[in-house]
Protein: CRISPR type III-associated protein domain-containing protein
Amino acid sequence: MHKAIFLEGTLRLTIQPEGPILIKAGESGGADPTLPDMEFVRTRRGSSDAKGLIYLPGSSLKGAVRAQAERICRSLDSAERQRNHLRRRRELDPSEPLVPLADNPLGTGKSYDGLDDMNYSSGRAIEAMELRSHSTPTIATYRRSSFVSQIFGHTSLAGRVRFADAYPVGELKLEERNGVAIDRIYGSVAVGPFNYETVVEGTFPTQIGFKNLTLAQIGLLGLALRDLADGRIGIGFAKSRGLGRVRVNFDHLEIYYPTCRLNDHDLTLLSGARVAGSNELAGLGALCQDMAYKGYAFPTEDSAPLPVGLAYVEDDLLGVRLNVSGDDQVRAIWRACMPAWKRELGL
Structure:
């Protein structure tokens, strides 16, 4: 689903520390005794400071959000859901394996009808299946990837969500802290004392881009981002010791349908095929009802009512846009996607 774009979105958000945070640089301290043992990661981008500019790497944000999405999926997945999905996929290909909602990154890739889902790793499984001989290897790779891997990617499939680095706006407040590492057996100091650099105040605007997602996938992404915003998960170093908590404000969300137009009271493809009502939010499944996309096993029902106060507008050049402003309205979009996420779970 990377060869064409049916739906793409950009979420702009602002991250602020809720207490100290530290995302460690690869090499810190060194021989200079004036530097902390653990320094915050920095970049030379737009900085006249010899030490560089502190920033939040997109990879760190993506890792935290993906890990939370996997926790949510492992908590809610069930043997019944897996069997139901397996029956539907075997209508397309009798050799389909059992695929859970989230991978085991340490799994061997093997999957069995006995629901040994904790052993499944999408990347290793697809490499072992040798899909090069498959008539539609791209479609089979997507279909045999776990739900989370379809969003974030794996070794055989590129992800469809991209996290930008977050650069600070305005002044940052830094704080140096001290710590020791305790020997778990003897209870004495194993390493330390050492000091580390933290950011305790600052504003980091950034953006997340996504394309070709179903409403259920947008809903899961929204759940994980909500948990980050509400402080249920943290980022960076020493999260179990009080670091890493942040506040997140969702500033603006834009969803763009480049292959659509508004036709009377409907959202339609340029070919004229109806996608959804003009007061409905459409996911990838609604946009890809053509038989050419049947092998992807997209949901046949993939639309939801738009939150009150939102409406599509036609783009100046081509396509249709939905502009969502403010934290409350963005969260309303997440809520609108929840029925699709529940259908994915079989609820």
User: Anything to note?
Assistant: The first helix runs from residue 58 to 76. Helices lie at 58-76, 79-90, 122-129, 137-143, 147-152, 215-229, 284-287, 327-345.
